[in-house]
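quick q for whoever's on today - can somebody do inverse folding on this one?? i tried earlier but teh output was garbage lol. tokens:
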């Protein structure tokens, strides 16, 4: 999913899926860095929470349950 989003921003990937070329644009540079994109996701999430508090909690619950399922899968597959 994120690779497709990065490609829409103009980032190209090599055969292994690693970033090959990152154009000099705000969106591309933000999506190329996980640390940078996490900050912007946090900023937009706070704005979303201010606009629609109940909806943001519901969406957060979906992401939290998904993360929990991923962690359970990682722990049990070892």
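ok took a stab at it. sequence:
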């Amino acid at each position: 999913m994120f690779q497709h989003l990065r490609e829409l921003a103009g980032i190209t990937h090599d055969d292994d899926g690693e970033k090959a070329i990152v154009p000099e644009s705000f969106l591309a540079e933000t999506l190329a860095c996980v640390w940078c994109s996490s900050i912007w996701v946090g900023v937009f999430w706070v704005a979303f929470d201010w606009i629609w508090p109940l909806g943001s909690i519901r969406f957060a619950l979906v992401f939290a349950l998904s993360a929990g399922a991923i962690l359970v899968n990682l722990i049990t597959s070892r």
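fwiw DSSP finds four helices and two strands in the chain. also The chain has a mean pLDDT of 87. so keep that in mind when u check it
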